[in-house]
Amino acid sequence: MNGDNGAEFYFRYLKGDDGGIEDIVRAYKDGLIFFINGYIKDIYIAEEITEDVFFRLMVKKPSYKAKYSFKTWLFTIGKNMALDYLRKCKTSKEVVGYENPNAEYEEVSLADRVIRNEDRIALYEALAKLPEQYGQALKLTYLLGFTNEQAAKIMRKSKRQMEMLVYRGKIALKKQLQKEGFMYENR
Amino acid sequence: MKTDEEMIKSLYKRREEYYARTAKKSFAIAVIKAVMGTAVPIAAAGAAAFFLILAQKNIAPQDDMSGGETTDIAPASAGDNGENTKKSEASEKLTSSPPLCFSFGGQIYGAAEEQGEFFTEYAASNLTEAGTAAVLETEAEERECIVYKLEDSDLKALKTEEGTVFYRPIGKSSYTVSGWEFEITALHKTAERYKTTALPIFREGEDIVFRAYDGNGRPVRDVFMLYTPELLDFDSVLWEVKGNLPENTRELDNYPAPEFIQYFSLVRLCERIRSDGFKADGVIAEYGCNTDIVIDGKLVAKGIQLYYTDLNYTEYVLEAYEHSDEIAITRLATGESVFITDDICDYREFLNPDTVPETVKGEGVITADKVSRMWEKHVRGAAEGNGLTEREIIGAGFKKSEEAEDKYELYYTFNGREYIAEAYIDEGTGNVVIFTAYEGQFVEDGSGENDLVNDLDFIKYD
After folding, report:
1. Could you say which of B163, B232, B379, B439 has the lowest number of CB atoms within 10 Å?
2. A133 touches A155 (CB < 8 A)
3. B461 within domain boundaries
4. Domain A1-114 is in which class?
5. What is the pLDDT of residue A172?
């Protein structure tokens, strides 16, 4: 993946340079919140979980081996922690999320940052309405820049399954956009 | 929402609080050692530390010893603030990355770096922080470490010359041939091959076949591992074959018979189509004759065709057509039935008709056949304006989907697997615009591990 310097940042941190973890936060925070929010559906809790992911790197210092890109590895941890959170909520019957009048604004604002230069908030809104797996597959591959293989690793799918998810996701997205009056010109 | 800088600041604060709490645990261990000496059994030390820590009222048990499913990073208790100055020495020591250990099956295993990949795999979700203890390293050096408890009934520990290797069985099958009982287990996440008595006879690229021989040197069983990238990564798969295998199990020196070459042409064809993103163009000339579908001078779909035989010399023809610019649909014909799928590899069962269980030669096959014929009509008919209609879809038993108004679904089981056929209707014309079928797992939250098990396919000689 182009421009993924996360491994370098992380190794710097492991060698004692706190600037490494700061660079990681700056490089991945928004994307990770955006991604985790796809599972959690609450932008504030997604932010907390994202912070927990970074905190885990800081104090647990899990070993990273360059089998996958750092970003893939980081997002995999993020996904697992998001799922853990959901499992716990299910077990304890807690209510996920809480009312916050700014939540919608914050979410759109974050999406705007992640897909900046594209000016396609309509796309994000349509993505949010897709079945979860379709939405996550498209976010990973198109908005967050992962390859199918990397996205497959994060979502624990085979490459083949990922290709199918992206394919079906695109069809579903196209339909959703058309339903909302979006002119779809490419196909 | 927090800015980057706010989150960084928050992280530093949490780290400081975390190490302050960890320092207290280290202090408790030191007390135990001082009282009981260094030869304290690890479990006893851990338990004692646990109760000592609990005895310190300002440390909530759930902070570090929770019995929950996963690791919690709980915020520090309010009482932590300001108390860490007394333990500055211990704190400093632990700030330099305390090693990680884990307990599994009643034993505590050493520092995480020795099981680096294993820990990475489990770092996020499968470990529960269980406390702090001392652990004896291989050279009798005693170290303190944070212990994670691992409860995973599927996990196995295998003692090898290199040390303990953890693995998760991904597939297992037992069978009997000529009175010999075989059990093959494919183990995953292992560093080295442990034991292989059925040797690979063919490995080119990512095709792997194991062949076992009887006492006369006659082949009795081939085991194919196909289509699953994880399995094809031979170095990450450990094959363990148990049973009364013939003594003269051996590796073939030469390439297999011509029918095998044909068979593996199909295998490679599958892989090529997959790796090319289901575009068939590049492989037409190489693997078969061109069977492009041209209607009224217009190219509807690019196609390829491959004829081959199985080990019983039953003839097959496989066709693959590009469709929707992205996916190749395929048809495998045995002379009796025709099935169409979007994945050639689903049809490996039909390489030998004998391997199709009786139970699947019923309703499921009829439905699958019906779906395949509808598919064919959809592809061929779409260009002529007489493709599938909503009426036909309903007549075939499709039900309206809850997911979308213009979508119909048909669930069916074929050869022991669940499939879903989907049809999307154009609201204007009432014609089917998208028609597809796929295994149900694609829409479920399957981890993929079941797929691995299913990919162990056994084909028997006559």
Report:
1. B163
2. yes
3. no
4. mainly alpha
5. 78
Whose structure tokens read 């591990």? Answer: B449
Residue B289 has pLDDT above 70, yes or no: no
User: What Å distances lie between residue B408 and B268, B387, B388, CA to CA?
Assistant: 34, 16, 12
**Count of A–B CB contacts within 8 Å?**
116
- B143 and B8 in a common domain: yes
B350 and B424 housed in the same domain: no
The most confident of the ranges A60-74, B168-182, B352-366, B396-410 is B396-410
Q: Is residue B251 a part of any domain in this protein? A: no
For A130, B64, B238, B342, B449, the CA distances from B445, given in Å and listed in that order, are 15, 31, 26, 20, 11
The first and second tokens of residue B402, run together, are: 């809850």
Q: Which residues of A touch B424 (CB under 8 A)?
A: 171, 175
ipTM over 0.85: no
Report for A1-10, A52-61, B13-22, B259-268: range of highest mean pLDDT: A52-61
Q: Is B137 on the interface with A (CB under 8 A)?
A: no
How many domains does one find in chain B?
4
One domain, residues B300 and B312: yes
B458 located within any domain: no
Residues of A in contact with B10 (CB under 8 A): 51
Which tokens hold the place of B75? 């915020």
Q: Vertex B271, ends B270 and B274: CA angle to 5°?
A: 90
- Domain residues of chain A, as ranges? 1-114, 119-187
A158/B326 touch (CB, cutoff 8 Å), yes or no: no
Tell the CATH topology of A119-187. Answer: Arc Repressor Mutant, subunit A (1.10.10)
Please list, in sequence order, all residues whose beta carbon lies within 8 angstroms of the beta carbon of residue B377, skipping any fewer than 6 positions away.
B387, B388
The band of B33, judged by pLDDT with boundaries at 50, 70 and 90, is very low
Mean pLDDT value of segment B101-123: 60
pLDDT tens track for B373-394: 676 677 666 555 677 888 888 9
* B363 and B342 housed in the same domain: no
B327-364 burial, b at 16+ Cβ within 10 Å, e below that, comes to bbbbbbbbeebebbbbbbbbbbbbbbbeebeeebeeeb
Q: Say yes or no: A95 contacts chain B, CB-CB below 8 A.
A: no
Q: What pLDDT is attached to residue B410?
A: 84
DSSP A141: I
Token representation of residue A3: 């421009």
B142-150 and B100-104 beta bridge pairing: parallel
B72/B123 same-domain check? yes
Greatest Cα pair distance in chain B: 93
What's the pLDDT score for residue B401? 79
Average pLDDT along chain B: 52
Q: Residue B452: inside a domain, yes or no?
A: no
Cβ under 8 Å to A: B residues 433-462: 434, 438, 441-443, 445-448, 451
Q: Do residue B10 and residue B129 come from a single domain?
A: yes
Can you list the alpha helix ranges (DSSP code H) found in chain A?
6-14, 19-40, 43-60, 70-92, 103-114, 121-128, 132-138, 148-155, 159-179
Is B8 an interface residue toward A (CB < 8 Å)? Answer: yes
**Reported confidence tier of residue A186, pLDDT bands at 50, 70, 90:** very low
Is-contact B101 B148, C-beta < 8 A?
A: yes
Given a contact cutoff of 8 angstroms between Cβ atoms, the answer to whether B162 and B203 are in contact is no
Q: How far is CA B427 from CA B213, B236, B381, B406, B407, in A?
A: 60, 50, 18, 7, 10
Residues B137 and B12 in one domain: yes
